[in-house]
Amino acid sequence: MQTDLLILLIPLLPLIGFIINGIGFRKVPTGLVGIIATLGPLAAFGCVLLLFSGFSTISELGNSSPVRMVLFDWITVGHFNIPFSFQIDQLSLIMLLIVTGVGSLIHIYSIGYMKHDDGYGKFMAFLNLFLFFMLLLVMGSNYVIMFIGWEGVGLCSYLLIGFWNKNTNYNNAARKAFVMNRIGDLGFLLGIFMIMGAFGSVEYHEVFEQASGFPIGDPTVVAITMLLFVGAMGKSAQIPLYTWLPDAMAGPTPVSALIHAATMVTAGIYMVVRSNVLYTLSPITLEIIGGIAIATALLAASIGLVQNDIKKVLAYSTVSQLGYMFLGLSVMGYTSGMFHVMTHAFFKALLFLGAGSVIHAMADEQDIRKMGGLRKYLPITYWTFLIATIAISGIPPFAGFFSKDEILMHVYEHNKLLWVLGVIGSAMTSFYMFRLLFLTFFGRFRGTEHTREHLHESPATMTVPLLVLAVLSVIGGFFNVPEALGGSANLAEFLDPIFELSRKVSPHSFDETLLTHSEEFMLMGISSGVAIVAMIVAYVMYIQRVNLPEADTVERPVVEKVLYNKYYIDELYENIIVKPTRGLSDAFYSFGEFIIDGVVNGTGWAVKQTSGQLRRLQTGSIGFYVFAMVASIAVILWLRFFIRF
């Protein structure tokens, strides 16, 4: 009973915060808004910790079965039933810890960042609503509950990206995110319909048990996994549905940290890991995922090399890191993909919140060309940002090194070419992140004197979350240390029951690593060395030689110009998709206006004119009426006679 109550409270507590602040956002005192909004996620995090400790104890006793809680039977049609139910297992617990833990820190940060905004209460309510839907997505015991959360976070993303709705560009960014996510969601929905038809259920345990009896490469399973991955491409920003994510930086910085770093964009990763049995049965889908993932990682990383908006650099970094996560999944390194989800939540949330602290100090300036020398004005922000930069670059012993290295090791075992490309992407990551760090915090200050006078460190509500995330970015990698370094891979052991059916379906895919310790050390050395070399190159270019980025008006070399304009992919979409669609819509509008409206209005006009003429027959003359009656009878008799014969 206590477990059921804890499970129920986890999504309910943020929902209560949304209801209070959402209904009374104009009436709740400003001082209470942040407290109400933050208490829900913090209390939910406490509930998750209690569940986690209890679940770990049960697992140690040899019972690792999921805990299911059915709230009510929601849809019943004949023998087909969809309950509104939750499932708590190892995978959902890891995601719940990330969502509620990092989410709570971002709520606290938002108090300092958004407190003076006119829509402060509404903003905090939207954050709570987002957290509620994200928890539904993670906790649902079937694909339909996951889809409710999936759509809910999409809605909240739209509301939060376009929060400052008086700016047309922000509204356009929100609309773009909404539309591109709907494209992916259509694929996800079709995948769910196929699951219903193939398995007669949407409950995870029933679907996966039945699927484990299918042969590898079954066409139905391949179709289902491809459709589900289309949904993941939209939510987790993979080619070709990735262009919404960089534009989504239009929203307030806490939105970027919560939605586009720690939670929403990892929903696609979670869905694939949750459906690991289906993907293990479909090697062709995994190969396609691997190709798209490495292409996304390299494309986004190359664009990030030359961007000058502090949040845009981090946005393309997120797209690239999501590519790495999918790359790990594509070689059935499901644990390594989830490990990178966890460490990425720490250091990427820290990077976005650090960027927000910089923007806050710079009076909303986001162009790194107008920054420089900020480390002496923002010491806490600088040191935490440095830690996050080292972590994301994959330099030991920080968190990103362990998770990224584990992905690259799995890739090396399966495909050497993908590994080489992955290492190149890792080098680019290190370069553009240290470029960002050096241009922002080192050298001379390049802003206005007025801005310099007002530079100051952020308040404690913003710096405390930075410090907590910095600690996690340092120690987060030690949750899954490889055996070669004397570790015990605790995360892999904890998540092991999730992949039991996949191991049954394809035992050889889950054999122990074929790499020797010396090979592992070699791979670690190469990936770390490449990252350090890239850091040194960035140091030489931007610290020693003071090679500052050019103004937008300066003509650039062709390659740099292509990268700076993001390969012109937005322009390509505009010309081959948006404009033709808009033109077709205008044509349909014109057709409706001139043809359909013409027919409808013409019919009305004809009836009106005809009735006007027929009205003249009402003369009041009895003789005319008798004549009309006789003539009508004659016509009726003639028609009757004609029809009979």
TrEMBL record:
GO molecular-function terms, A-Z: NADH dehydrogenase (ubiquinone) activity; NADH dehydrogenase activity; quinone binding
GO terms for cellular component: endomembrane system; membrane
Main localization, broad class: membrane
Localization of this protein: Endomembrane system; Membrane
One Pfam family hit: Proton_antipo_N
All residue ranges annotated as the NADH:quinone oxidoreductase/Mrp antiporter transmembrane domain in the record: 142-429
Alphabetical list of Gene3D superfamilies matching this protein: 1.20.5.2700
Any single GO BP term: ATP synthesis coupled electron transport
Name of the protein this chain belongs to: NADH-quinone oxidoreductase subunit L
Organism: Larkinella terrae
The encoding gene: nuoL
